Amino acid sequence: MRNVYTTLLLLFAALILFCSYIIGRRDKAPLTKSIRYIMIAAPCTMVVYAVALLMKEKFAAELMYALYYTISDVLLICMLFYSLKYTRVYEPKPLYKAGLYLITAVDGLMMLFNVFTDGIFIFRCEQMEDGSGTVFYGIAERGGLYNFHRLIIYLFVVLILLPLAVKIARSPSMYRKKYWLTLLSLLVIIAANVLYLAMDLEIDFSVLTYGIMAVAIYYFNVIYVPQGLVEGLLSSSIRNMDDSVMCFDIEGNCIYANSVAYAFFRTEDVGPLTEYYKRWMDGRELSETVDSEWKETYEVNSVKRYYAAQFKRLCDVTGSCVGCFFKIHDETEDVKKLEAERFRATHDRLTRIYNREHFYDMASEMLRKAEPGTYCMVCSDIKDFKLVNDVFGINTGDEILLNIANTLKQFAKSGSVYGRLSGDRFALCMPKERFNKEFISNEMHRIGYISDATSYRVQIHVGVYDIVDKNIEVSVMCDRAFMAIKTIKTSFADMIAYYDDELRESGISEQKVTGEFGTALREGQFCFYLQPQVSVTGKVLGGEALVRWIHPERGLVPPDKFIGILERTGLICRLDLNIWELACKKLREWKDMGQTGYHISVNISPKDFYFTDIYKVFTGLVEKYEINPRNLRLEITETAIMSDFKKQLVLIRRLQEYGFCVEMDDFGSGYSSLNMLKDMTVDTLKVDMEFLRKTDNIERSRTILKMIIALSKQLGMEVITEGVETKEHVDFLTDIGCDIFQGYYFAKPMPVTEFEERYICR
Ligand code: C2E
Ligand code: CA
Ligand code: CA
Questions:
Q1: Are 484 and 503 in contact (CB under 8 A)?
Q2: Would the pLDDT of 125 be above 70?
Q3: Quick one: which of 684, 609, 703, 694 has its CA closest to 650?
Q4: Could you say which of 370, 378, 511, 749 would form a disulfide bridge with 428 (CB–CB 3.0 to 4.6 Å)?
């Protein structure tokens, strides 16, 4: 009997230890870890008990039994920690843990003490016989202190069971079964133990239940999921879904539908649901159907709602159909969000018409399908829109833009596409035959009218490009319409311009210029002419360097044929650098000739301020050619300064401090001139030649000129007047105090050698 039992214990213990090792390698979850402690402590108890039974000496047997009792305490502590971790009823504090360890240690020491005091306090062993002739040492007598050990055991058992009981009471009914089963596995050991004590058996068969309990705990906690729990959770998740769910059996009876489904069909009974099923089946058998998904839209309270529906068949393990379900998802919000996002990405915020990219896409899509030569591109641009915003305020600016968008909407109708390309630029691609010059012209006049309070009219210019080749890019078509706009002069009369042959030619010449520029620069085809600048006493003080392109085929090309193009493309910076260098080289030659009394004025394009470090370049040139910065005059325009007023102001000061003479070119041709003078101290004002031109208001022009010259004198600036063509000009300008003259009256721009011959090497 003993041999069978010990073998059983040892084999079972080995099996559990092996399992615990395997589990430990696979599952590192904290709860599994605490179960594994039980799965180690339980077989240890079993092994030690089996060894005690096998002992042949009384002392050794008593020692093993003492160890067995102590390890039992450890096993109970493991179970207690597991129970707390599993139920999470409360977190054991360090003091609580220390108390448990202390009690176990005291119990263990007592057991050891018992062995050496011949078992008078707790227990004593005696030789016994198991009925089949095997002799072993069993526990024969228990002393008074054994009750202390028993008390500890009972205390631990209560502490283990208590959290589980609380957990059972607190948990939803679905989970209770799981906790009950765990509790039951613990109760089995207690029952077995009580039975052993009550029956006063020689061998404690309850030790085997430790192993059974360890396995049961692992199973019920980690592997087992109660059937009711799965079903309960599944049905509750379907009940709580935001989608309508309806299940039908093979006969087409609705066996389940959640509340959302009933609400969707606005019903409280299954009638409409079964109707829906029948409509979908359309006389088919369930086995003839296939799983599918589709979209549905319904009008609910005159609001369009979007649904995504799904049909799925349900099959059993053999693959035969046992029913089906429908899921209907309301995706109205998603669809709306997506539509809003798409709208934002393709439309302009303010006017809510197409933005540039989308306009290009839609227009090219439309043109792809169109008859060739039947469409035109109409673009609009507001003159001085920045000024309108500055003077009348952003709101007025916005209102004008909205008006233009509205006119486009009205005018466009179907078969046209329109959009806002940027700030004040709009485009409309439409059939040529519907284009109505009168209508557009009137509308633009109407929109340009701001209020009775002001006489200012906003000018909206329109450019039209006849789409001859519909395969070129839409952006290029727009560019051409805008090119046409550029030809509109300031008069109110014609606000609509057409892209014609002349513009096409200039477009071609633009390509030519940009194409040839690189080679021309490399081969030194650019040079400058000098136009003398003359003092009131008639003395030539120097000249303005004006670029000329000596083209190998076309001969001498004047700057108005290429400067504009180079400015638009940014190539002007490379040209200017070249001319500045040539001018400095010339000044150095003159210096070597002992002629240091003449200056050269060079032009600086607004683009140079963006792309060139002007200060570095000019100081570098002066140092390279060792010339006096006074002899190099720098002509800048208002537009260049206005782009970033504060920054350019600093730059101008630095240039002046270095010794350069800074001139403001074309003064009076912009609109912010006077205000700017307040902050800026250039050395010289170069008055725009328009003031001298013959106009209806010649007297007024001259009065302004007079005032400008008086003003600059008072501000300590020197004045040069350009475009001086007659003796009468000279006399008048001398009278009103102009310091220097430049113009055809004295000389036209001339090659440098001629300039030198005439003025320098006399
Ligand atoms: P700008 O700087 O205002 O130069 C004066 C222009 O007026 C010159 O034209 C000159 O020939 C012309 N002019 C001079 N006196 C008279 C006159 O009495 N009556 C009339 N009707 N015109 C006169 P040009 O040489 O054709 O230059 C045109 C423009 O090209 C210049 O205007 C300047 O803006 C630009 N430009 C010339 N050379 C350069 C350069 O090297 N770099 C840059 N960035 N621009 C340049
Ligand atoms: Ca100039
Ligand atoms: Ca000028």
A1: yes
A2: yes
A3: 609
A4: 378
Alpha helix ranges (H) inside 291-436: 332-346, 356-369, 385-392, 394-412
- Do residues 247 and 324 make contact, with C-beta atoms less than 8 angstroms apart? yes
Q: What is the dihedral of CA 387, 392, 398, 401, to 10 degrees?
A: -60
- Ligand 2 centroid from CA 678, angstroms: 22
Predicted pLDDT of residue 124: 86
Cα radius of gyration rounded to whole Å, the chain:
51
How is residue 39 written in tokens?
Answer: 């799965």
Nearest ligand to residue 686 Cα: 3
Mean pLDDT over 226-252 rounds to 85
Beta strands in 616-671 (DSSP E): 632-637, 661-667
Which segment of 135-144, 468-477, 525-534, 572-581 scores lowest on mean pLDDT?
A: 135-144
Q: Please count the other Cβ atoms lying within 10 Å of the Cβ belonging to residue 235.
A: 12
Whether ligand 1 lies within 6 angstroms of the CB of 603 is answered as yes
Mean pLDDT of 236-263: 89
Atom from ligand 1 closest to the CA of residue 724: 18
Ligand nearest to the CA of residue 634, numbered in listed order = 2
* Burial readout 678-701 (b: 16 or more C-beta within 10 A, e: otherwise): eebebbbbbbbbebbeeeeeeeeb
Using an 8 Å Cβ cutoff, are 535 and 520 in contact?
no
- The answer to whether 738 and 537 are in contact (CB under 8 A) is no
The helix (run of H) or strand (run of E) holding residue 677 is helix 673-677
Residue 161 neighbours by CB under 8 Å, 6+ apart: 83, 183, 186, 187
Q: Is the CB of 553 under 6 A from ligand 1?
A: no
Q: Give the number of the atom of ligand 1 that is nearest the alpha carbon of residue 686.
A: 3
DSSP assignment, residue 354? Answer: B
Amino acid at 286: L
Residue 313, helix vs strand vs coil: strand
Q: How does DSSP classify residue 442?
A: H
Q: Mind giving me the DSSP string for 126-165?
A: EEEE-SSS-EEEEEEEE-TTHHHHHHHHHHHHHHHHHHHH
Is the pTM higher than 0.85? no
The per-residue pLDDT for range 1-39, each reduced to its tens digit, is: 788 999 999 999 999 999 999 988 888 888 889 999 999
Residue 758 confidence (pLDDT): 95
Amino acid letter, 196: Y
- Kindly give the pairing relationship between strand 661-667 and strand 632-637: parallel
pLDDT at residue 332 tops 60: yes
- How do the residues of the chain divide into helix, strand and coil, expressed in percent and rounded to 5? 55, 20, 25
Gap from CA of 573 to ligand 3 centroid (Å): 18
Q: Which of 394, 483, 497, 391 is nearest to 444 (CA)?
A: 497
Task: Supply the pLDDT for residue 671.
Answer: 60
Q: For all residues of the chain together, what is the average pLDDT?
A: 90
The rounded distance, in Å, linking the Cα atoms of 663 and 601 is 9
Q: Mean pLDDT throughout 495-514? A: 84
Is there an atom of ligand 1 within 6 Å of 637 CB?
no
Residue 125 neighbours by CB under 8 Å, 6+ apart: 58, 61, 62, 65, 119, 137, 138, 139, 140
- pLDDT in the model for residue 490: 58
d(CA 618, CA 616): 6
Does residue 605 line the site of ligand 1, with CB under 6 A?
yes
- The answer, yes or no, to whether any atom of ligand 1 lies below 6 A from the CB of 726, is no
**Binding site membership of 749 for ligand 1 (Cβ less than 6 Å):** yes
* Nearest ligand, CA 545: 1
How far apart CA 486 and CA 496 sit, in angstroms, is 11
- pLDDT number for residue 201: 82
Pocket test for ligand 1, best of 513, 521, 530, 546 (most atoms within 8 A of CB): 546
Q: Which atom of ligand 1 is nearest to the CA of 608?
A: 44
